[in-house]
Design brief:
The protein has 6 helices and 2 strands; from the N terminus they run αααααββα. It is mainly alpha-helical.
């Protein structure tokens, strides 16, 4: 039996909720602090901007390949060209994008074509369900990255 997006949904939703909880209450000043004061390391705002852009792109990838259309994944470490400029705005935009992303199981047929894939830079070719599942791990990595600012 194939794993459906509905099967994966609880894990993906919990990881997204954990990421959003991790950035809740972070002040705008703290959102601009870099881990270890190293500007090469993303601050909380940049991490949130990245998760927002990733969510929007991967939602498009999942819907496209599940419906038999070719899709393009943005490069690793992608930041949107015109992201929200404050953590409050970025978090609001991420909540809205998350609601749409987490509704994918209602828009993707449980027996969608699993043959079409899009390559991930590290994990190789993944079909729509693989990309949806990847969201949980992706959010976990960036949750830890956001928390690292305060350690």
């Amino acid at each position: 039996m194939n794993t459906t997006l509905a099967d994966l949904w609880p894990t993906v939703a919990a990881a997204r909720a954990a990421f959003l909880s991790a950035i809740e209450g972070v002040s705008e000043a703290d959102a601009l602090r870099h881990p270890g004061d190293d500007p090469a390391e993303w601050n909380v705002l940049q991490v949130t901007q990245h998760v927002l852009g990733w969510t929007q792109n991967v939602e498009e990838v999942i819907e496209s390949i599940a419906h038999g259309r070719i899709a393009t994944k943005h490069p690793r470490g992608y930041l949107p060209p015109d992201p929200p400029s404050t953590l409050l705005e970025a978090r609001r935009a991420l909540v809205a994008a998350s609601a749409s992303f987490l509704a994918l199981p209602s828009r993707v047929h449980e027996r969608a074509d699993e043959a079409l894939t899009v390559a991930h830079e590290v994990y190789g070719e993944m079909n729509y369900a693989g990309w949806f599942a990847r969201c949980a791990a992706h959010d976990g990595i960036h949750r830890e990255q956001a928390l690292a600012v305060f350690l």
